[in-house]
Design goal:
mainly alpha, two-stranded parallel ribbon
Length: about 230
C-alpha cells in the first residue's frame, strides 16, 4: 500500500490509440475518487481515535459522521458512535484502479456505447427512477429497469463507487476487502474480483473482468496516484 508512484503520460504509451484515449480520460477520475475516499477514511479514523480517548464528539463532527453514513446507506440513528465508525470503515474503502477501469471498459464498450457517449454512463448501473434513467434498446419484454444517466463521467464514477460501497449485492466484496485492509495487503485483487459475480447477469463476468485486466495490463495502475 505504500509503493505509490505518480501517474504520468508515459504510463499510457503501451496502449493502442483506440484504448488510450478512454484510459487517459477515465483512469484519473477513478484515481481521484479513490484518493477522496482515503481522505474520508482518514477523517473517520481520526474520529475513532477521539472517541476512544474522549468518548465523545462535537456536534459538527457528529453531523459530518452522519452525513457520510447516509451517503453510503448506513443506518446511524440510535447507533453507538464507535460502532458507526467501525461500520463505515468496513464499508467505505478504495476499489483497486484496475478493477474499476476494467469494469468501465466492459460496461461502456471502451466509452463507445450509446449510454457512455450520450448519457455519460460508464458502468451500466440500473435504476428505476425515470428522471435519471434511459431505457435500454434491447430490454426484455416486461422488464422495467433503466440505465442510470449522468451529467458527467465524474458523477458516473462517484455513483459506481457508492454502489460497490453500499449495495447489499457487494457485501462479500466489502468483507474480503476489509480483511485485506486489516492485513495492509491489496496485492491479490483476484480475491475481490471473485466477489463481483453479481454485478452482471453474465455468468462468465468474473472471467471476462480478469481477462480484460490481464490483457491490458491494468494492474500496473493500482499503485498510481495523482499529485495536486
Amino acid at each position: 500500500l505504500n509503493d505509490f508512484t505518480n501517474l504520468s503520460d508515459s504510463d499510457f504509451d503501451y496502449l493502442k490509440n483506440s484504448k488510450k484515449d478512454f484510459v487517459k480520460t477515465v483512469l484519473p477520475i477513478i484515481i481521484n475518487e479513490n484518493q477522496n475516499i482515503l481522505i474520508t477514511r482518514n477523517f473517520i479514523i481520526d474520529l475513532k481515535k477521539k472517541l476512544q480517548t474522549f468518548k465523545t464528539l462535537d456536534n459538527s463532527e457528529i453531523k459530518k459522521l452522519n452525513k457520510i453514513a447516509e451517503k453510503y446507506s448506513i443506518e446511524y440513528v440510535n447507533k453507538h458512535k464507535l460502532d458507526l465508525v467501525e461500520e463505515i470503515l468496513k464499508n467505505v474503502d478504495v476499489i483497486p484502479n484496475s478493477i474499476a477501469l476494467a469494469q468501465a471498459a466492459i460496461e461502456s464498450g471502451w466509452g463507445k456505447s450509446r449510454f457512455a457517449q450520450e448519457y455519460n454512463a460508464l458502468f451500466g448501473e440500473y435504476t428505476y427512477d425515470k428522471n435519471n434513467g434511459v431505457v435500454p434498446l434491447n430490454r426484455d419484454m416486461g422488464a422495467k429497469h433503466l440505465i442510470k444517466s449522468f451529467s458527467s463521467y465524474g458523477n458516473s464514477v462517484t455513483s459506481y463507487f457508492n454502489n460497490i460501497n453500499s449495495h447489499k449485492a457487494y457485501k462479500n466484496f466489502r468483507a474480503v476487502r476489509s480483511i485485506m485492509r486489516s492485513n495492509n495487503n491489496f496485492s491479490d485483487i483476484s480475491l475481490l474480483i471473485d466477489k463481483l459475480d453479481t454485478y452482471a447477469e453474465d455468468d462468465k463476468y468474473v472471467v471476462t473482468l480478469k481477462a480484460v485486466i490481464k490483457k491490458n495490463k491494468f494492474d500496473k495502475f493500482d499503485s498510481k496516484v495523482i499529485s495536486y
